[in-house]
Amino acid sequence: MTSAEHPITRSELREELNQTLKHYATKADLADLKAELIKWMAGWTLGGMVAVASLVTVILNFYGRG
Questions:
Q1: I want to staple 25 with a disulfide (CB 3.0 to 4.6 A). Which of 2, 20, 29, 56 is the partner?
Q2: What is the rounded distance in angstroms from the CA atom of residue 20 to the CA atom of residue 15?
Q3: Beta carbons within 8 Å of 2's beta carbon, 6+ residues apart
Q4: Contact 2, 8 (CB under 8 A)
Q5: Could you tell me the sign of the dihedral formed by the alpha carbons of 12, 15, 21, 26, in that order?
């Protein structure tokens, strides 16, 4: 640690920076996240479309077509 008697050295600063930066996301992490989000969104969209189509089918069969 630093104090008035002992200023921080470059190597100490570099080590502290590396310890902080190791928790940050990399470009590869963000690319993986984007791919995962696209998969989830496609799944939810398809599921929603199936649910709506099922609901429309049930309503048409229950109330008739006209």
A1: 29
A2: 9
A3: 8
A4: yes
A5: positive
49 token code pair? 């479309």
Q: Tell me which amino acid residue 10 is.
A: R
Can you list the alpha helix ranges (DSSP code H) found in 1-66? 10-21, 27-63
Say which residues have a Cβ less than 8 Å from residue 8's Cβ, sequence separation at least 6: 2, 16
Give dist(CA 23, CA 40) in Å, integer: 25
The distance from CA 32 to its chain's CA centroid, rounded to whole angstroms, is 9
